[in-house]
Amino acid sequence: MRPRVARPRRGGAPGADRGTAARRGRGRHRDRLRQHPESGPVTAPDEGALLGHGRTSEVYAYGVGTAIKVYPEGTDRALVAQERDAATLVHALGVPSVRCLGLAERSGRPGVVFDRLTGPGIARQAEKDPRRLPEMSRTLADLHARVHEARTDALPDVRDLAVSLLDTPRLRTLGTVTRTRLRARFRDLPDGDSVLHLDFHPQNVYEHHEGHAVIDWQSACRGPAAADVAMSVVLMREVELFPGTPPLLLALYAASRRAVLRYYLARYLAVSGLTPAEVERWLTCARVLRLGLLDVPSERRRFLRRIEAGSAAVGGPA
User: Fold this and answer.
1) pLDDT digit string (tens) for 257-277?
2) Is 179 helix (H, G, I), strand (E, B) or coil?
3) Structure confidence by residue, pLDDT tens digits, 229-254
4) Where is each Aminoglycoside phosphotransferase domain found (predicted)?
5) Mean pLDDT, residues 166-191 taken together
């Protein structure tokens, strides 16, 4: 989970009927990732104010009503284009998100331009009034269920992504036998064509116009909804909280996060019909995705240990 940041104000009204848009868009967007109209980046002005930052990017004001998400110098341009394409696709499918305006550069660094959001992150509600935490958590679950209503075959299969990440240097330390066993288990997981975010948590959901918008689509995949819910469980239960936070405040954040997860998961299971067992089956895969997509040194040993245990569990989660 990313640390708290200043709020990037990127906007663009979400579609009015997500389920209808998703069904209509299923076939139409098959080739969207390969045929995006953007031919290349433009240059962003350097004087835009910093709006926010996370572990892997910064967000700056960019013109009137727009913002640019800037990646570190040396970032693979193909990965930046991948976020542009995924963000464009999900917005066209009616997923509550912000409109993507294409690639740009700022001081030679690659970036993606978005409309600015019109409101704060939904976590702000609970920060101001802890009594609203259950309401915020249920809103989170309802939005996640709406994301999963969208269907596509234009995004990578989450199982293929997990298998490919097993060959990254930090996961090769698991050893050949463990990785072979995990590959077989991941390939045996259920197929699906729902849009998956893979970084869905309160800090990536914002109030926007009359509704909400989900940001940060660089990890988007397709698959069964249970895979994305498992990833959110891992993010809200196992990842490191805000490095450098005083211990007392850290304990408060941890207690709040546990409560959010409890309300979120109960609501999501109720509205979707998904079972706890379906989510649990994806937990080890979700840990591989977390470690493979974002290597946080302080998390590495703990995640490797849990992945190893998950691979060895007979009849346990994959």
Assistant:
1) 999 999 999 999 999 999 999
2) helix
3) 999 999 999 998 877 778 888 888 89
4) 52-237
5) 96
- CA-to-CA separations, 265 to 110, 144, 233, 286, in angstroms, rounded: 36, 11, 8, 16
Q: Which CATH architecture has domain 123-312?
A: Alpha-Beta Complex (3.90)
In CATH, which superfamily holds the domain spanning 18-115? Phosphorylase Kinase; domain 1 (3.30.200.20)
- The answer to whether the CB of 97 falls within 8 A of the CB of 212 is no
Measured between alpha carbons, how far is 146 from 142 in angstroms, rounded to an integer?
Answer: 6
Size (the chain), residues: 318
pLDDT, one tens digit per residue, over 88-123 is: 999 999 999 999 999 999 999 999 999 999 999 999
Structure tokens at 234: 């891992």
pTM recorded for the entire structure: 0.83
Give Cα separations from 78 to 75, 81, 110, 156, 233 (angstroms). Answer: 9, 5, 10, 14, 29
Q: Report which secondary-structure segment, H or E, holds 61.
A: strand 58-61
